[in-house]
Automatic annotation (TrEMBL), chain A:
Topological type in the membrane: Multi-pass membrane protein
Keywords, in A-Z order: Cell membrane, Membrane, Sugar transport, Transmembrane, Transmembrane helix, Transport
InterPro entries: MalF_N (IPR035277), MalF_P2_sf (IPR047103), MetI-like (IPR000515), MetI-like_sf (IPR035906), TM_PBP2_N (IPR032550)
Coiled-coil stretches: none
Annotated TM spans: 38-59, 65-83, 95-116, 304-331, 343-364, 400-421, 441-461, 512-530
Protein name (record): Maltose/maltodextrin transport system permease protein
Subcellular location: Cell membrane
Keyword Transport included in the entry's annotation: yes
Species: Agromyces aurantiacus
TrEMBL record, chain B:
Domain ABC transmembrane type-1: 115-313
Subcellular location: Cell membrane
Native species: Agromyces aurantiacus
Biological classification of the source: Bacteria, Bacillati, Actinomycetota, Actinomycetes, Micrococcales
Bilayer-crossing regions: 58-79, 114-140, 152-177, 189-212, 233-256, 292-313
Membrane topology type: Multi-pass membrane protein
Protein name in the entry: Sugar ABC transporter permease
Pfam families: BPD_transp_1
Gene3D superfamilies: MetI-like
PANTHER family (UniProt xref): MALTOSE TRANSPORT SYSTEM PERMEASE-RELATED, MALTOSE_MALTODEXTRIN TRANSPORT SYSTEM PERMEASE PROTEIN MALG
Assigned protein family: Belongs to the binding-protein-dependent transport system permease family. MalFG subfamily.
Superkingdom of source: Bacteria
Length: 540, 327
């Protein structure tokens, strides 16, 4: 990276501004701003503050105090920066830094946290949420339940039930809010039909939202064992109780029909003595479990090892093959006497200009074993298993990545070659060196100096080259022995994606643990590479 | 660029040394003695031509065939009126635009919506990335403040971790955001753009920073003496002078966003909200959907704007690439 220009010189020769100079500069700045600038600034900060205020209001309603605090502090800092006379660099850096911190730094830290939890399918929320959803899932109508008069009501999009019990008492509640008594409801034939703060649904609305209404189960009280009111038709409600009984003190769930006792053994779920687990469970911190599991569970460790090896092989071979082909072509076409080089050049750049996800999909079609162009036309009806045999699929991936990557290396090498002065060549020729010697001993080292950082960057890019793997083979052929959806051409990043987002069981914790492992590998390589190329020295 | 000099036809096939001699002869054209020493123009010899440049054309033809054949294949199958994958194998056997009509009008495949989504998301991301990046590059290039060096180094280091590695965390953060503000959370374009803007500082800032440094600071100083404030200098003077690098960064960011699959597939859930990458992958991964011709037509339409932009800005991109950006 050629970052340094004349700034080292200026940084040394110009003394840091004195306090007076700085004050003068800021006054000049303010004076030059004019009314319009100040107005624009006020409007922009006003918008930011209004959004922040709205956010704080919502967060207060949901009682997310930590997030609320963060929003408030960030808003305060932003106001302080933009109303201050100084802090000029901060004014320019803040917008980008906010996004950088939230979606680049924070998510990395958060990945680290998730790696230590059992987050995933069946372990999505808190223990209370798990309890209430278990109870709600096993609700059964109490056989001799009295009939409750029910009106479906709506508050800001949340449906609730306005319930009149057989004694004439009126209460209202939603899926989340247990029934609470209300006063002053509007009655009709002894049944409450409307109440302040809620909109009663018309008959048409009830019909339109039937699905939502039949899902409604309004808890009777804070104790989930008391059951819930449900309504099959939107006008009559019945008491439903769960076939599960929750004992908060003992931390157990008892199935009333079978008598099985499920206990909380600290694994984030209620487990019966025979090992049967109630789903959903809840999210807990599991320490190094995910890492230990990834490395020691034999069914997981095998895939992790061969995926890691293949990731390195894939990245290294891709860089080497694209570089050598690109360099070769750059040498071939770097001859002034050759005609039509512009045409060749444009034709060769085309693969690079096409979005890579499209090219990979097209190649996947051409490499189809039974119908693809390569087998059917180029090989005259052969059936080479381009994408379905573990070894051949790896070769296919490398070929396609060569196709995708060589134009870049061609461009880069052409640029680097042309920056080597012609005198070098002449001097070597005079000294009696053969063209090959000139190239190998003089041009190549010179070339590598300028291209080496790009090769490292290219390695890092290919190390996480998700698109070519996922679009071409989808990581396949699938390894049927592994409990996670992993295949023989998967690289680490596509394995993370598949563990987290495909398959029956999403295992965010394990995926995050894999991410952390990749972070460490990439960071180590980057640090070594940085030391080597010493590019940091240029940044001064 | 030296290689774009026109090469006169008479010089084709001559070796470098002969060329130099000829030029020397041309320079000293007035001297009859030297002119006599200059070699006679030799008759055309295929062997000599082949040794000098002919074999290069052979290599060129092979490489061009390798580079172009998937492209030719996809164009051919997009013109096949009713093509399955097998039917597409006979190149240009039939020509018609039915496949294009199918992909554009099929009610089950909202191709035009995907296309529009992609252009909107990639366009806005590109513009905002350039804006945020150039703000930062201006501060780093023109101002001296404590933490400047640290800031530059930390941007490089942070940028080394690809965002898609943190995709699980991004998904969970966006899920949490949608609990509070559904308008910018999961399944929204704004949410996705915000995630992409996390990478707005980074390699792009570096490219721009280098370019900003080549603009002499005396221009700023002159403007300052004339009474311009920092904002006016930035918006009305500097941004115009650095326009070429802004175009390159915008294009690189645009192409990156068009290509991005991982984060987009996780955040955009509804079919109507998805981008081309997410939608088309789903389209061909469905084995029952055997309309390869329609997919090819979609691919051609999708690739066209990017390819044209790329070829149009080719010269700048090559410069930008050698300065350290990787697609």
């Amino acid at each position: 990276m050629s970052i340094t220009t004349d700034e080292d010189v200026t940084a040394e020769s110009v003394p840091p501004p004195t306090k007076r100079q700085r004050r003068a500069a800021s006054i000049a700045d303010a004076a030059s701003g004019g009314l319009r600038t100040i107005l624009i600034k006020m409007v922009l900060i006003g918008i930011v503050d209004a959004i922040a205020l709205y956010a704080i209001f919502i967060l207060a309603l949901q009682q997310d105090w930590i997030v609320l605090g963060v929003v408030a502090v960030v808003t305060a800092i932003v106001n302080w920066i933009y109303f201050s006379r100084r802090k000029l660099p901060a004014k320019y850096l803040t917008p980008g830094v906010i996004f950088l911190v939230l979606f680049q730094v924070f998510v990395v830290v958060y990945t680290g946290y998730i790696a230590f939890t059992n987050y995933g399918t069946g372990h999505n929320g808190s223990k209370e949420q798990a309890v209430s959803s278990l109870m709600a899932a096993s609700l059964e109508r109490v056989p001799d339940s009295p009939t409750y008069g029910v009106t479906v009501v709506d508050q800001l999009g949340t449906l609730g039930l306005l319930v009149t019990d057989p004694d004439g008492e009126v209460s209202v509640g939603t899926n989340e809010q247990p029934l609470q008594e209300v006063q002053g409801a509007e009655l009709e034939n002894g049944k409450a039909v409307a109440v302040d703060g809620w909109t009663s649904l018309s008959f048409q609305d009830v019909i339109a939202r039937t699905d939502e209404i039949t899902e409604l189960a309004v808890p009777f009280s804070d104790d989930p064992n008391d059951g819930a009111i449900r309504t099959p038709d939107g006008s009559n409600g019945y008491l439903y109780t769960s076939t599960l009984e929750y004992d908060e003190a003992a931390g157990t769930m008892t199935d009333l029909t079978s008598g099985t006792v499920y206990t909380d053994q600290g694994t984030g779920a209620f487990v019966a003595e025979d090992g049967e687990e109630l789903r959903p469970g809840w999210q807990i911190t599991v320490g190094f479990d995910n890492f230990v599991r990834a490395v020691t569970d034999s069914r997981l460790a095998g895939p992790l090892i061969y995926v890691t090896l293949w990731t390195f092989a894939f990245a290294l071979i891709s860089v080497a093959s694209t570089f050598f082909l690109g360099l070769f072509l750059a040498l071939v076409f770097n001859d002034m006497r050759m005609r039509g080089r512009r045409f060749y050049r444009i034709a060769m750049i085309l693969p690079y200009a096409i979005p890579s996800f499209l090219s990979a999909l097209v190649w996947a079609g051409m490499m189809n074993e039974s119908f693809g162009f390569i087998n059917q036309v180029l090989l005259g009806g052969a059936s080479v298993p381009w994408l379905t045999d573990p070894t051949v699929a790896k070769i296919s991936v490398l070929i396609v990545n060569l196709w995708l990557g060589f134009p870049y290396m061609f461009l880069v090498c052409t640029g680097a070659l042309q920056s080597i002065p012609e005198d070098v060549n002449e001097a070597a020729t005079v000294d009696g060196a053969s063209p090959w010697q000139t190239f190998r001993l003089i041009k190549l080292p010179l070339l590598l100096v300028s291209v080496a950082p790009l090769l490292i960057a290219s390695f890092a890019f290919n190390f996480n080259n998700f698109n070519v793997i996922y679009m071409l083979t989808n990581g396949g052929p699938r390894d049927t022995d592994a409990p996670i959806p992993v295949g023989f051409t998967d690289i680490l990043i596509s394995m993370v994606y598949k563990v987290a987002f495909t398959g029956q069981n999403r295992d965010y914790g394990l995926a995050a643990a894999y991410s952390v492992i990749i972070f460490i590998v990439v960071a180590t390589i980057s640090i070594i590479a940085f030391r080597r190329t010493k590019s940091l020295e240029e940044i001064n | 660029m030296t290689e774009q000099q026109p090469v006169p036809g008479t010089q084709a096939g001559l070796l470098q040394a002969e060329l130099r001699e000829q030029r020397a002869a041309a320079r000293t054209g007035g001297d009859p003695e030297l002119q006599r020493e200059a070699p006679e123009k030799r008759p055309f010899s295929f062997g000599r031509w082949f040794k000098a440049t002919g074999w290069r054309h052979l290599v060129g033809i092979v490489v061009v065939a390798f580079a172009l054949f998937p492209i030719v294949f996809v164009i051919s199958s997009s013109l096949n009126p009713k093509g399955t994958l097998t039917g597409s194998n006979a190149l240009f056997s039939q020509i018609g635009f039915d496949a294009y009509a199918r992909i554009l009008t099929n009610p089950d495949v909202p191709f035009t919506t995907w296309f529009a989504n992609t252009l909107i998301i990639a366009g806005i991301t590109a513009i905002l990335t350039v804006f945020l990046g150039s703000l930062a590059a201006y501060a780093f290039s023109r101002m001296r403040f404590t933490g400047r060096r640290f800031g530059l180094v930390s941007i490089v280091v942070i940028q080394m971790f690809p965002q898609m590695l943190a995709v699980v965390a991004i998904f969970l953060v966006m899920t949490a955001i949608s609990d509070w503000f559904p308008a910018i959370g999961l399944n929204t374009h704004i949410g996705l753009i915000m995630v992409y803007l996390g990478g707005a500082l980074g390699v792009n800032t570096y490219l721009m920073y280098g370019y900003f440094n080549t603009i002499p600071a005396s221009i700023d100083e002159a403007a300052k003496i004339d009474g311009a404030g920092h904002a006016r200098i930035f918006f009305t003077i500097i941004l115009r002078l650095v326009a070429p690098i802004l175009a390159v960064v915008a294009l690189l960011s645009f192409i990156f966003t068009v290509n991005e699959y991982v984060v987009a597939s996780v955040i955009l859930i509804d079919t109507e909200k998805q981008t081309l990458a997410v939608g088309l992958v789903k389209l061909v991964s469905n084995p029952r959907y055997a309309d390869w011709a329609a997919f090819s037509a979609g691919a051609v339409i999708a690739a066209l704007p990017v390819v044209l932009l790329f070829l149009y800005l080719q010269k700048y991109i090559v410069g930008g690439l050698s300065a350290g950006a990787v697609k």
